[in-house]
Amino acid sequence: MFDAVALGIRIKEYRNRKNLSQKELGNLCNMSQSTIANIEKGNISTFNIAKLNIIADALDITLDDILCDSIYALKNNSSPLPYEIKLKQLLLSLDKTEIEFPTRFINNYIILKQSTQINKKE
Q1: Which positions ≥6 away from 36 have C-beta within 8 Å?
Q2: Has residue 74 got a pLDDT over 50?
Q3: How many CB atoms sit inside 10 A of residue 12's CB?
Q4: Is the full-model pTM beyond 0.85?
Q5: What's the DSSP call for residue 45?
Q6: CA-CA distance, 109 to 115, in Å (whole number)?
Q7: Residue 42: is its pLDDT beyond 50?
Q8: Are 48 and 59 a contacting pair, CB within 8 Å?
Q9: CA distance 78 to 80
Q10: Cβ neighbours of residue 54 under 8 Å, at least 6 residues apart?
């Protein structure tokens, strides 16, 4: 089994990078817009590697590019949640100066959480 939601998120991400609508990608792949929409939502009834290969070709990427999150889920026997995938993608897109704010925010949150726990114990 694979993670259909992670697969759909990945396809949508690459489609958006190419500035393609679902309809345009569907036309490139000889598929309907609703088929692309369902794939992006993770509503896939059967796993069709041939269809995924056509999509990958239309997006100028490899199958590995769109399957990597699904494969990760299989290796670890758990599926990354959609927000985890989006957060990872966002963090990877930030440059050094842009990453400083979320890093400070997370560190401050951890400090606050730890101090709250210490106060509860006392």
Answers
A1: 11, 15, 22, 23, 25, 26, 29, 55
A2: no
A3: 17
A4: no
A5: S
A6: 10
A7: yes
A8: no
A9: 7
A10: 29, 30, 31
